[in-house]
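Interim report, section 4.2 (structural modelling).
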Amino acid sequence: MYFDYFNVFVFLTTGLLFVFANMIVGGLVRPQKPTPEKLSPYECGEDVIGDSWIRFDIRFYTTALIYLIFAVEIAFLFPWALVVREIGMLALVEGFTFVAILLLGLVYVWVKGDLDWVKTYNASVKGGTEVEDRPAADIHGGPLPVELLQAAGVGPTITEQQTKGEKGHS
Amino acid sequence: MSASLALSLWLQSARLQQQTGAALGSTTAPDSNWTLDLLEWVRTSWLSTKLAGLAGMDQAPALPTWAAAAIGAGIAVGIVIGFVSVVAMFSIWLERRVAGRIQSRIGPNRVGPFGLLQSLADGVKLLLKEDIIPSGADRKLFVLAPALVMASALAMFAAVPMADGAGFTDINLGVLFIVGISALATIGVIMAGWSSNNKWALYGAMREAAQVVSYEVPLGISLLVPVIVGGTLELGAASRLQSGWGGSCWFLFQNPFVLPAFVLYFIAALAENKRAPFDLPESESELVAGFHTEYSGIRFSFFFLEEYAAMFLMSAVGTALFLGGWNFPGIDLLKGGWLIAAQLAVFVVKSMFLVLLMIWIRWTLPRMRVDQVMVMGYKYLTPLSLICVVGASVWEVWAAVPFHERPIWMQLFTPVLVFGVCAVLGAMLRKQAIESAAQPTTRSRIAPRAHAAAH
Amino acid sequence: MELLFFLLFAGLAIAGAVATVWMRYVVHSAFALMGTFLGVAGLYVLLGADFLAITQILIYVGGILVLILFGIMLTPPDRTERNAKRVIGFSASLVAIALFLAVQIGSVVRWAEKSNLEAPKATAAPIGRELLRPDGYLIPFELVSVVLLVALIGSVFIARRRKAVRVDDSSTAAILAERGTLQQKAGA
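Predicted structure of the assembly:
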C-alpha cells in the first residue's frame, strides 16, 4: 500500500515540478519585452475600471454547502457499496434509510428554491407587492433584470420565457 | 487545531516512527509492481552481473528499498508524462479534425501526415511566446495555479490501470481517489481566476468551481454502481472482474442499472471537465476565455493540456468501470507480451472512443444557459443516479451470488436489455435524422430574433 | 525514510497552519489552509488510514476549502494588511499553549508500542462491514444521516437570502421610482 501512495506522492510532486521546469526551459528561449499595455488586465480593449476582487453572490456559497453534505454522504456510501452484496438485506435497508433521510434534505432545498440559480423578480404575487432582495452584483450569473431587458426592447419574448420556465417551481 | 495536532504528533515522532515502522517497507517488502520487477530484472541481468564481477562481487547488490521505490516511481512518472503529453496532443488534433469535419472544412493538415504534428508545433510556438503576468496580478498564486492543476491531472493518472498488471500503481481505493484528487484541480482553477485580477477570469473561476462542485455529486454517486456490482474500489481489480465470456462480460452487461449509471457518469464527466454543452466557465461569448483569460504562452498550455488529459482520464475511468477495461472478445487467445500490448491497445482505443464522443458532443450541441447547468446537476442527475444505486443494489442483493454463478436467464437478461435499448434508440435517431434531412432548410430559426429587435 | 516523510507531511501541515494565520490577505490564508489539509492527509496515509486520507482530501479540499473560498468572496473584499504584531503575539501564545499541551499529553499517555507492525491493509471494506454490523456502528451510521440532514437544512436556512420581503405602499412607490430611473438609464 505504501508503495502505491509513494507513487502518488511522486506523481504529485512531478506535476508541480514539471510546470516549473517548463517555465525555466521556456525562459531561456522566449522574448521578454513588457510594456504597460501588454501587462494590463484584459477587458476587451477598454481601460480597466475598478478592482476585480468583488463580492460574490450567496448562491455560490449555498451550492458549496449542499455539495459538502453530499460529499460526506458519498464518503459514507463507498464503504457501504463495497460490502452490500456480501451483507445482503440488512445493508439494503440501512443504505436506503441513509439515502432516504438525505433525500429529504435534497427535497427540502429543492422545494424551498435554494437549488434555483435564477431567482426571478416576481412583482405580481397575490397578497401585496413582493420584492426580492437582489444581489449586489448580478453580472456574473443570471440574466439581466427583466425591466432592463424590456427597456432595451427585447422584453416581451424574454418575459414569456421567464414566466413559463419559472411556473413550475416558483 | 491541526497545527497543535501536528505538533503533538511531531513531539511523539520517535514513538510514532516505531508505530509506522512498516512505512515504505523498512520492515516489509513493498508491494509488487512492474517498475520494481524491471529494476530487479536489470539487477540480475547479464550485464549487471558482469559489472559486479569486475568489482569483485558475484552479483550486483540490491538497492535499498526506498531507492528502488524512488527509481520505480521515477520510471512510472517519466512514462506517464510522455503518455499524457502524447494523448493530450492527439486529442487536441482529433478535436480540431473532427470540428473541421463537422463544420465542412478541413482542419489542420499541413504539419506532418494528416496534420498529426500540429499540436507539437503549437507546443513549440507556445514555448517561444513571451510570458506575461498582468501588472495587477497576484504573482505567486498566478504562478502556482497551473502547477496545481497539472499535479492533480498527473496524480489521477497514477491510479489508472492500462493493462493487467501494467498499471502505474493500483491504489486499492482507486475510484474514491480519483473523485477526491480532482478537487485539487478545482482549487487550482479558483487560484488562477482569483490571482489574475481580471473580471472575466474571476467569474469564470467561480462558475467553474460552482459547476464542478455540483456535478461531483452525481459523478460520485453514479460511480457507486460499478462498485456495488464489482465489490471493489480498485480499478485494476474491477477490470479483472469483467474478463468472463471470453472478455466481453463487462459491468455494462452484468446489471441492468449500469447502463443508465454510465450515461449519467458520462454527462457528469462532461460537466466536470467543463466540456460543451457545459463549458460555461470558459464560454467565449460571455467570459472571453474564463479563468485562463490572462494566461498566455506556455502557462496557458498547461491548462489546455490538463483539459485534454482530464478528458482522457475520465474516459479511462469510464472504460475501466463500465466498459470492461482492457477486456475485449477474443483477447485472451493471446499470450505473454502480446497480451499486454493488446490489452493496452484495447484500453486506449476504448478510452479514445469516449474522448471522440465528447468531441462529437461539443461540436453538435449548443451551450446551455448557466441556470440550466446549475440546476441540472442536483435536480436531475443526482436523483436519477440515486435511483440507479438503489436499483443496482437491489438487483445484486437479489441475485446474491457473483455473476457467473447466477441462473442463465439472469446472466442473459442485461445484455439483451442493453442491446435492445441501443437498437430502439438508434432506430429512433435514424428516423429523426432522415426526417430532418428531408425537410427543406428555412430561415425561420432566426426570424424570432429579428422580430424581437424590431419591437 | 518514513521519518523523512513524517517530517515532510507534519511540516507541511504546520507550515500551512502558520501561514494561514500569518498571511496578509484572507484569500492567501485560505489557500495556505490547503497545505495543512494535504499534510494531514499525508499523515493519515503514513498511519495506514488510506480511506481517511482520501476522504480528507475529498471533503476538506474539495468541499470545505471551496466553501471557505466562496465565503471569502461573499464578504467585502478585504485588502487591508493585518496587524503583524498582534498576529505574532497571538500565534506565539498559541504555539506555547499547544507545545505545553502536547508535552503534557505526550508524557501522560501510555502509547501502544509495537516494534514490528504488519503492513497496513485496505481499510474501506472493513469500514463498510463495521458500519453495517448491528452491534458495530450501525446506529451511528444512521444517525450520521440525520446529523447531515440537520446540518444541511440549518446551514441552508441561515445562508438563505432574505426572501420576498413584503413592503408597504410607500416603499413600493420608492421601488417603482427606482425602476423608472433604471429604465431611463437603459434607454439612454
